Amino acid sequence: MDALDRSAGKLCAALVALACLLLFAMMSVICADVFLRNLAVPGMPRGFALASDLSESAIYLMTLLSAPYLLRSGRHIRIDLLLHMVPARIGWLMELLAACAMLFCCVAMVWYGVVVTGRSAGSDAMLIKTVVYPEWWSLVPLPCVFALLSLEAIFRLRSLLVGPRQPRNEQVSVS
Question: pTM of the predicted model, to two decimals?
Answer without folding.
Answer: 0.85
